[in-house]
């Protein structure tokens, strides 16, 4: 099995190179900037330059930053795709774990097919070789699920020590992933609930739950504890600005900064959401594509549930499983249901559901055997469904660009006095973070329009916006404005007692979008609140 790891790495790395270079909005906004700021001590020097994402844990983006700085883009893209190749490799492991009684050649063929199906599933494929980081999170989730199922088998064999070791490993690995990207907590909670479904007496299951929770917390603190502490000391909110309705940091408004665009609109969508977004991903994502796997798995699980209820009412005896180990069934189903429920309640954003999408083929086998009770027919039905899903799925390649010799191709003009220069980022939607590492290090960047500060004339003013206004008011050197316009649409600068100098716009060449650097000067009679 280990020999398949380099194969998956190379194949997915080559696929990443073939698809093209990443150029998504998040990359242009913060995936390149926040590791730059972290490694170069710019936190506190720059304020809010990449919107609220400025305050995300930068650790997961450090490898990409180093690749983009020191390696040719094609090599970096190959390495990113290769690392993401761990996902199909883990599906190989999970298939062997869940189908131990199947004859070896057939099991290998099925594992390779399921790994391929998972690799090309739309959410996973869209993230291949890119900096969304959801494909990284999936690696931790699948590895943790593998450990959980190993623990369930140990419990079924009466080996409590083995159970606790594997359960602790599952929690710790999931916690590591959650610390790197907090959306992974969706699956940590699913794994925590699943640990209660391992075989054995109630006391043993309770102990597994406790060990999993403690190990998960340890993993979370390992990768994110240092950053949470820094956010707490700086903003009095360890996950700033998230959950600020609870932590009430004065540096942001008192609500949780949720993106409400993706949640179900009514009761029907709440209950049957996968059927609604399967062919219309605009409900749950900003990209347009089709993904039918989750709907197929959801439908088969519902069929299995209905058949189980009918069998129970008819008092039919439960048939023993001969394909999927009984010890693994309940933990896998509980993990899936709880993870999906938490996802829908907290995010409903499809990219964060990639770990379940890549597990669809295995979920179909488990549900099909439960419903049909004939292993060969169950496997055949699962294969047909997966083939149908793959035929109707539609991928999205939005945000990819052709490869060049530099990842961003940014050119920045020289500055007369960079150590005494302010650059204001005065646009609520335009990502400019990818250009900032190319500016002289002495320049200070302040964002004056964003999703934390909102409109300058909002009746409530956060402390963060007050801090920015105070810095601008006391600054004595040159001030520039970096924005995506080459015309005078900067009247909102008056809030800070500034105006743009006519005909001063200088283009900042790059390979992605038009950006212009304006000179700014103080108004002769400033009226803005920030100018007082």
Annotation keywords:
532 residues; alpha/beta; 6-stranded mixed sheet; two-stranded antiparallel ribbon; 8 strands; elongated
Helical content band:
40-55%
Radius of gyration: 26 Å
Counting helices, strands and paired strands, the structural category is alpha/beta
Q: Low-confidence parts, pLDDT < 50 over ≥5 residues?
A: none
Q: How far is the N terminus from the C terminus?
A: 68 Å
Judging from the principal axes of the Cα atoms, what is the shape?
elongated
Largest beta-sheet details? 6 strands, mixed
SSE layout and pairing:
Layout lengths: L3 H16 L1 E2 L2 H7 L1 H7 L22 H9 L2 H12 L1 H13 L5 H16 L2 H5 L7 H23 L3 H21 L4 H10 L7 H34 L8 H4 L19 H11 L15 H21 L12 H21 L7 H5 L1 H13 L2 H18 L7 E2 L20 E5 L17 E6 L13 H12 L4 E5 L14 E3 L5 E2 L8 E7 L10
Parallel strand pairs: 3-4, 3-5
Antiparallel strand pairs: 1-2, 5-8, 6-8, 7-8
Characterization of this structure:
The chain starts with a helix and ends in a 10-residue tail after the last strand. The model has no long low-confidence stretch (mean pLDDT 92). The strands form two sheets. Strands 3, 4, 5, 6, 7 and 8 form a six-stranded mixed β-sheet that branches. It has a two-stranded antiparallel ribbon with strand order 1-2. The protein is 52% helix and 6% strand. The protein has 20 helices and eight strands. It has 532 residues and is α/β, with parallel strands linked by helices. The longest helix has 34 residues, at 202-235.
């Amino acid at each position: 099995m280990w020999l398949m790891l380099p194969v998956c790495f190379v194949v997915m790395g080559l696929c990443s190179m073939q698809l093209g270079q990443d150029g998504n909005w998040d990359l242009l906004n913060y995936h390149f900037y926040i590791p730059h700021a972290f490694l170069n001590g710019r936190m506190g020097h720059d304020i809010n330059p990449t919107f609220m994402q400025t305050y995300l844990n930068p650790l997961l983006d450090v490898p990409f930053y180093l690749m983009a700085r020191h390696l040719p883009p094609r090599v970096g893209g190959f390495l990113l795709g290769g690392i993401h190749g761990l996902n199909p490799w883990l599906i190989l492991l999970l298939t062997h774990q869940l189908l131990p009684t199947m004859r070896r050649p057939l099991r290998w063929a099925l594992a390779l097919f399921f790994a391929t199906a998972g690799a090309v599933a739309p959410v996973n494929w869209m993230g291949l070789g890119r900096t969304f980081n959801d494909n990284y999170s999936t690696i931790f989730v699948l590895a943790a699920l593998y450990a959980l199922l190993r623990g369930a088998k140990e419990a079924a064999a009466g080996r409590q020590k083995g159970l606790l070791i594997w359960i602790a490993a599952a929690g710790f690995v999931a916690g590591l992933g959650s610390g790197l990207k907090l959306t992974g907590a969706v699956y940590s909670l699913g794994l925590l609930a699943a640990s209660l479904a391992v075989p054995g007496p109630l006391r043993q299951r309770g102990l597994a739950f406790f060990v999993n929770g403690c190990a998960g917390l340890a993993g979370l603190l390992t990768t994110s504890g240092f950053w949470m502490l820094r956010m707490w000391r700086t903003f009095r909110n360890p996950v700033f600005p998230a959950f600020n309705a609870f932590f009430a940091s004065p540096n942001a408004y008192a609500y949780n900064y949720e993106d409400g665009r993706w949640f179900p609109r009514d009761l029907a969508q709440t209950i049957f959401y996968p059927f609604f977004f399967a062919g219309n991903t605009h409900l749950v994502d900003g990209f347009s594509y089709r993904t039918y796997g989750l709907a197929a798995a959801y439908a088969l699980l519902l069929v299995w549930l209905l058949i189980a209820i009918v069998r129970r009412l008819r008092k039919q005896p439960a048939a023993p499983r001969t394909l999927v180990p009984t010890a693994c069934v309940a933990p896998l189903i509980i993990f899936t249901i709880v993870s999906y429920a938490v996802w829908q309640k907290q995010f409903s954003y499809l990219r964060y559901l990639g770990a379940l999408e890549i597990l669809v083929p295995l979920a179909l086998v488990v549900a099909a055997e439960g419903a049909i009770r004939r292993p060969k027919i169950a496997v055949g039905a699962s294969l047909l469904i997966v083939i149908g899903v793959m035929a109707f799925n539609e991928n999205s390649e939005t945000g990819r660009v052709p490869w060049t010799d530099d990842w961003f191709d940014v050119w920045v003009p020289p500055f007369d006095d960079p150590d005494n220069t302010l650059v204001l980022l005065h646009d609520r939607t335009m990502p400019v973070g990818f250009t900032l590492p190319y500016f002289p290090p002495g320049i200070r960047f302040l964002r004056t329009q964003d999703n934390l500060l909102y409109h300058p004339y909002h009746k409530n003013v956060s402390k963060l916006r007050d801090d920015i206004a105070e810095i601008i008011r006391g600054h004595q050197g040159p001030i520039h404005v970096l924005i995506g316009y080459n015309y005078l649409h900067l009247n909102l600068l008056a809030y800070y007692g500034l105006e743009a100098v006519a005909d001063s716009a200088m283009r900042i060449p790059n390979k992605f979008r038009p950006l212009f650097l304006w000179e700014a000067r103080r108004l002769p009679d400033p009226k803005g609140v920030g100018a007082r």
